[in-house]
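Task: encode each sequence below as structure tokens.

Item 1
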Amino acid sequence: MIEISHPDRRLAGKTALIVGASRGIGAVTARVLAQAGALVMLAARDAAALAAVTDAIVAEGGQADFMTADTTDDASVAALVEQTLSRFGGLDIAFNNATDASRPMPLAQMEPEDFERAIRANVHGTFVAMRRQIRAMLDGGGGSIVNMASLAGVQGVANLAGYVTGKAGVIALSKVAALDYADQGIRVNVLAPGPILTHHLEAAGEAAQQQAARATPMRRVGTAEEVAKAVLWLGSDDSSYVTGTVLPIDGGQSAGAKPERMYRQGEAMTAA
């Protein structure tokens, strides 16, 4: 089990819905928000994985429940939001973390159905989720939505046409929602992580992890807990004047390039 440091109880009494919570960033975020006092509803397709995460939260003294859901289906998401309201009495925070894992390939080799699946999982899924979440938050007096994009949705990555387009769409959609509801008590923000050590990168092996680390100015990959703590901040009143923003969590990648040679020179100067 991943050890997670315990934050303060700044979310006490608030309800958080985590979509895509069965593993990785979603699962860790659910635990972090629960430790901060939130009542947490977890959603994904894998019931067994959701049950395991829920059990871990309860074992740590938190309150949580789960429900399987298809995040691209409006009726399924409507039932999920209704279950959240019924179980915990409201909806204050939503983290939309569901995505798809596209196999890298040049654009012309990509099948139309693969591209459509990426758009449906990212853009359509985020739209469907926000549509239902916003309605519930309006009835409850406001709330905070955090959507998961990627640094790839900001600056592009070769061979990932569907994924990049999908994440760019999440960013655009989130900005529109932020503007639509900025004066109605609902904030909408986006996370744009760089390389994070989740199960995908762990499965890729040590060489892939080292390559990803060298691509960041910090020369390391990020952790799921570092992303989760950004969700915690954006979901809390500490970020009450923040909406429509895209927050990179990327070890400095979005700032620009830091070649390996400069990194080594910096090490030598520090040693001297």
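Item 2
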Amino acid sequence: MLTSMTGKSVVVTGASKGIGRGIAQVFASKGARVLVVSRNAEEGASCAAELGNGASSFAADVTNWDDMERMSRSAADRHGGIDVLCANAGIFPQIGIEDMSVGQWDEVLATNLKGTFLSVKACLPYLKRSQSGRIVITSSITGPITGFPGWAHYGASKAGQLGFLRTVAIELAKYRITVNAVMPGNIATEGLGDLGEDYERGMAASIPLKRLGRVVDVGYAALFLASEEAGYITGQTIVVDGGQILPESLEALA
């Protein structure tokens, strides 16, 4: 059993739905005081109310530095500091490279990669004061390991996050802050549902565990990386994909 998270101050960006909601749910269930960060104030407030356990919400855009500064100050004021940042906010609009505009490319990189940088930078003064500061980034298998048509911008942003974390892990080690990432495969979220039942069935068939992941599966991986027990792990990644990246082909699963 991991050391209790009770009373820990945890910030989760992009937390009102999808994987972020699952991460927030897991931390709140373990007694952490969670700040649910979302661009949509109503969705964030609804999520925080559902989580309970002292969770609250904050409306902010991770691409906006002023918003991130206000977010970190609010978390510190409400919870007495910040112990854990889960930099999860991300978007994945699907469009082929031939049709992708410069603006569409910039939007994804701004949210997924620049947003990670800004949230980390804003929370850093408070994480430095924690006895066990933790940063957990939500990357993906798409980009660092695999590719999928329509997600060139998304894949680039997710690979970029891993390059970011490896250097930042070195820089922040002197403050006893660890920096790691979870790399989800196909997780059952609202966004994935938009791709249709045929897509879901096809993806499940290509996964050794024969199911899509749950958002809390990613949440528990993040919880471990944020724990006292993971204090000697930094600059690393955990793939959460049910074995999806293992088979060379579907024939391996026959």
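Check on item 2: The first strand starts at residue 9 and ends at 13. Residues 183 and 239 are 5 Å apart (CA to CA).
End of task.
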